[in-house]
Amino acid sequence: MQQQILLKTEKLCKTFSNGGQQQHVLKNIDLKLYQGDFTVIMGASGAGKSTLLYALSGMDTPSLGTITFGDKVISDLSQDGLAVFRRDHCGFVFQQIYLIDGMSVMDNVLSAGLLVNKDKKALVAKAKELFAAVDLSEETQKKFPTQISGGEAQRVGIVRALINSPEILFADEPTGALNSKTGLDVLDTLTRFNEQGQSVVMVTHDMQSARRGNRILYLKDGVILGECNLGRYSHGDVQRHEKLSAFLKDMGW
Amino acid sequence: MRKAKGQTVAIVVLIVLASMLLNLWLMLSMDYKANFDRYHIKLNAEHVTLLVNDTDNVPKFLSQTLENEPEVKEYCMDRCMYMVGTFPYNGGMMNGQFIFMDKQTALSRSIGKAEIVEEGKFTSGVYLPMLYKSDDFSVGKTIEITIGSHPVTYTVCGFFNSVMMGSHNCALTQIILTQDQYAELEVSNYAFQTTLCSVRLNEKSTNLTYEAKIKAIVSENFPNTQMASNCYDIVAQSRYISQGICSAIMSVMAFFVLLIALVVIVSNIINYIQVSIKNLGALKAAGYTSGQLVLSLLLQFLGLTFIAALVGVALSYALFPAINLMMIAQTGIPYAIHFLPLPALISLIILGGTVALSVWFSAHRIKKIESIVALRSGVQTHNFKKNRVPLEKTKAPLNFALALKTTLSGVKHNITVCITMLVLSLVVVFSGLMTENIIVDMTPFLNLIVGETADSAINVQTEIEDDFLEVLNSDSRAEKAYLYNSLNVSHVGGVELMATLCDDFSKVNNQSVVFKGRFPKYDNEIAIAAKYAKEKGFAIGNEIEITANGKTEKYLISGFTQITNNLGRDCLLTRQGYERLGTLQSVTYYINLVEGTDIDAFNEEMKGKFSDSVNGVINVLATIEGVGSVYVSLMTIIVIAILVLSAIIIAFVLYLLVRTLLNNKKRDYGILKSLGFTTGQLILQTALSFMPAIILSTVVGIIVSCLVINPLMSLFLSSMGIVKCTFSIPVAFSTLAGIGLIIISFGIACLLSLKIKKIAPRNLLVGE
Fold first, then answer.
1. CB-based contact (8 Å) between B668 and chain A?
2. Is the entire prediction scored with pTM above 0.95?
3. What's residue B767's pLDDT?
4. Fold of the domain built from segment(s) A5-250
5. CA of A123: which chain B residue's CA is closest?
6. Secondary structure of A46-114 in the HEC alphabet?
7. Given A60, A88, A104, which is nearest B387 (Cβ)?
8. Is A96 in CB contact (< 8 Å) with chain B?
9. Among A63-67, A114-118, B6-10, B109-113, where is mean pLDDT lowest?
10. Chain B, nearest residue to A91 by Cα
11. Tell me: the pLDDT tens digits for B598-622?
């Protein structure tokens, strides 16, 4: 069955000017992201993977080329247009988590949810459902970000990202700031939501994290050097690990 | 401070403004009135002026008396002419008691001589007090002076300065004529032949009592002689009413701006400590003591303060010429602007001292920082004890709820906003008070300063009083007429009081003259000035002995008055009450005319009907317009300056607060933008976050200010004899101005928050 295209790029370029010198970070990238995929973007530091994620998610605008979401070109949108695009279609999980310290855990989630959904009752019910799904107690929901652990905070970040049922969940190194145990919990959560149909695009340089994806893109010097299809994730799949290792080796990782 | 250039500039601007206003206030209050004394000394001016008829040997008697008076240091007597008269002034009429003197005598008097400040080549004409120099009157132009009832046209030859007789505020206004014109006036018999006696005393401070004493001596010996007089205290005060008001406003504004600057500095330092807690912890760990860290802040702010204060002082000198011109138009005394080190020094000390105290007070908490705790925990700007606006439960819209969260987490910001808006509310209510009671309708101000106003005042001989009243009663243009006569009486054991007589005080237009008790109704009652009553320890119901015409009678005090004339030494008597002491030679009637009546034509008609029995007529309305326009233009400038200053202050305070808020919330706003909040929503949240404090403090400020403005004004004007101000409260103006303040604040906050546009979610992601 043909997969539905969620987002596609054509000749996507991003150039930064640094001290008068042009730095071409993304070069003519043509890419399609599909509904239901867990897409992982890998690459060495400075390869441009985060830049690609920001461009795809409407956090940043490309220098050249187009990005199309469904049938809407988002690369031409204003900053406010992009903000509306992000709130309506995207969810974000950040490496540094980025919860607002002055708001309780529940308020961090509701502040994002109320932007889209005015039915507060339904929204609170959904938030509680998601909190339960990531195993965060009612007591934790009332706490402030500095009063909870890093793993808990990242799970709050995931709930916040999912509260508006986004078409795509973007995750930038979601386990980067966590220890291995809590990192695994976060990956399990993302995998579980992906299994339920949530499209995920994740940037990582960690092989353990990358294994969760069904589609691996390898970025080098601003171009997609290669792509590997791992199929759906299943726990303890040794062949999957070997396939990914071989792919990465081919890519020169 | 180098990192926060904008905030530093804003603090500097506030200090510059405070310093400028402080120095202007100090210059006006310390040197401006001293200038009067300098001229008083320069022109060897008198302490008491007495004008007596040139008949019955009065001048000779006066001279003999003065020779033997121990209080008198020196005196001089010169012949002159006297008559009440008018001339056009400032779009109205100037009414006064004119003393006509020939040029040579006026310039060569040993006491109280005049000084020519400007003259042309004209050899025949008139010299006017410099106060009246205007577009209408300049050298070479003509002036029509109505002397008694005779209009005479003169060429203006020049202008002069006379300390004691150079303004309508001095009771006596000197007009100098060239030799030929003086001789012509003498021949015409338009004015009375009089002698002007100028007396210098050994003790200047006894001028008021000595004026009363010498007049009493003359009256005792010549009961029928007419006299006019003034003295140093009365003239010194009356010539500086505007200066006093202007100076008081400057001082209040200066301290308000200073207060706001200090609040902003305190808020800035506390914020700096919060943001830099890790750096401060590191410095402490490296061995810096708290004292050293506080001292470094102190030196930074003091350096900034002194530079800004010097700029402010310099700016005050740039503004002073314009203020000086306005003041001279009221005082009529030339003032040469020169550098005054003392006001500048006091301004620097006040600013330096208050800033140092504020810095020390706010930086003191550096001592509480424990280096290890600071390094570990960094900034904790939020109180985690309570989630005050839980989004789950609040019914407020999202943006408003988030703004409210910001409001509740910024106590220091709210305090700064509240203090600023409370101060500005008071300033706005004051502006409204000035607008409503002076600029739009001067009556309340005039009621306080002048006492009583009407359309026309006609002085007639008592013999024709009945006929005069009959004519008035049958004239449909005369709405109301009542006897309102001023003359001098003496309080036994006290000084001379200016008594105002009325046949029925219920007819007077200004019913607020008696602010406590009531007007006298019966012939044994008197209302006296509250200031004088306080000095002498009188209460309502007490008996007071009054002397006039060599007769003494007792009166019951029925009420207290507040009139600024005569330094608050006045009293009110019924006509019957006065007639227990003596009879009136002439009577002045105040007349209210039907709107639209030509007052001058009415006065002329009355003069025509009773010819020689009319001593004088005054177009009171025109006089008020003439003199009042000086106050109106001064107050208009002050109100505009106050409102502009208020707008600048709001803009700078909000600039500082918004900037601090944006710096503190840069990360939060980046996160919110990444979640899909638009720039507009975040601007709205930021501006809204200031609104609860702005709205609350403005509403409270306006209400409280409306309640306290009259008592405050009474306090300011207490030295002029005002005990209870009854200005109409500008409720509508204040309400509209309050709404305006809130809208302007919201607009400014929105404009200043435009910087949010520059906060990009991408910067947040790559920034850490």
1. yes
2. no
3. 45
4. Rossmann fold (3.40.50)
5. B392
6. CCCHHHHHHHHCCCCCCCEEEEEECCEECCCCCHHHHHHHHHHHEEEECCCCCCCCCCCHHHHHHHHHH
7. A104
8. yes
9. B6-10
10. B675
11. 998 898 888 888 877 887 788 888 8
